[in-house]
Amino acid sequence: MKFVLRRVAATAGVLLALTVALFALQEMSGVDPAKAYVGANASPATVDAARARLGLDEPLVPRYLHYLSGLLHGDLQNSLRTRTPVASDLADVLPASLELAGCVMLVAVLLGTVFAYLTAMRRRGSAVLRGVLFAGAAAPSFLLGMVALLVFYGHLGWLPSGGRTSFRDAPTGPTGFLLLDTLLAGRFDVFGDAATHLVLPALCAAIAPAVAIGRVLADGLTANLEADHARTARAAGLTERAVLLRHAVRNSLGPALSMVGIQAGALLAGLVVVEKIFDWPGVGSYLDSSVAAADLPGITGVALLLGVVYVAVNAVVDVLQVLADRRLALV
């Protein structure tokens, strides 16, 4: 419990520092939100009125405190592009990104586990799998996405090119997660179509995290399989599989969980390019549109969201590591 309380306090401190950094970046950006709100051709009087309405004429410290108070109440300011609250905009696009991110992490963990198992056990075919994954991880995500589109959509015609579904009457609620909503509505045809739309973006985004997770887990498994306690277990008559499952896996989970947390926390930010290539209507597409329109509230809202997700995921992973090895709570 003391470890959890320390971790929560550290998380709160990091998030507070993040709000200071985002507020400072808005101030130093050189973009006048009032002018962006009313348009470049607006008169000076109109710009001044907009600046007063947005609270931009107040001193720096009161403006930051007002900004922080709004964040604590879920107010991420209004988008200069959509003229609606950024929190509302993100609530509309976040489920699509979370659905894609969940599929990416599932594929990454499965591929990484297979990679680690084949490497640690020196199974036949492990070199081929390592070569394919390393080649995919070395390629930039935009290049990997374009090659996947050319091969699997353009040449073979096996998979769709982008979007979440081809159905115009696909369910839009109640959760916003299309796969779950289609099951709740009994639309199994849309479920299958939505699943095929997930394949290409999920695979393209999962290869790099899979290699990172797999390498850490493989190193841990290899070291534990060569340790003295593993040799003793073999001498006692345990099979190699039993030694792996009973003695190597648990001792290797800590570093692997840490890597899963790092990859999961950074995943939403990494999906920006993938969402753009595959026309995925998520946070990445929203950020791309906000950058093009110099929409500072939209940009900082996305940055704050990504920061909160990253810090929260790593805090949860730290707690899971302590549950796997209680000695870490003393560090």
TrEMBL record:
Keywords: Cell membrane, Membrane, Transmembrane, Transmembrane helix, Transport. It is a multi-pass membrane protein. It is found in: Cell membrane. It comes from the Bacteria. InterPro entries: BPD_transp_1_N, MetI-like, MetI-like_sf. The chain crosses the membrane at residues 98-120, 132-153, 198-218, 256-278, 298-317. Residues 94-321 form the ABC transmembrane type-1 domain. Belongs to the binding-protein-dependent transport system permease family. This is ABC transporter permease. It comes from Streptomyces milbemycinicus.
